């Protein structure tokens, strides 16, 4: 029975990490006048596939979730990224919040019958604070299109609540809890201007490195930034993302070793 309960809880909890999207491509604005420029991007990452192993209260289960299974567990999710740049230096803030839950009644064998009422409550959020430096800002090709490379580094705060309440004919039982940790983050972002309305970007982000129980957290994204003709300071971002997390508490009772992939979509607003 513990195996079944842990499997249900872990399946829902891992979806929370699916929204851990970071590092949306930054448009090549090209302002060198010393003024601050700002970018805000609300975005979503849709986990088309989730695989790996999850552990709650010392019980490990294998995960293999489809897109439909991930969306069925989702109650609320929102995320956004804010960037402030002046010259070649920038400050970046990325935040994500996810709320998930579910309940199920499981019949008990035997002549007495009865059932177990299982309720899963998940609340996960993380906040990332990074500084950025535009190490390369040049042109390429006969058309003189621009290319930029940004280097990034900072800290990320993670919080993950995962609780399973079991209501039985006898005493109620609660499994799981909340884990929080800080971890270092480094990354890089390359942006290619394709024409006046299109840009392509590749982003890689690495966190953890054994700090706070997170051995390694990887986010890699390839996508495009499209600005329609009549949109002056707004553009649409879309692409594909890979995400993986390898986290474990010191006692091994709570652990994630999962990877996910799927499309992402966002809208960017710019001003100065």
Automatic annotation (TrEMBL):
Which keywords accompany this UniProt record?
Signal
Q: Organism's domain of life?
A: Bacteria
Signal peptide location in the record? 1-23
Q: What is this protein called?
A: Outer membrane protein beta-barrel domain-containing protein
The species this protein belongs to is Tropicimonas sediminicola
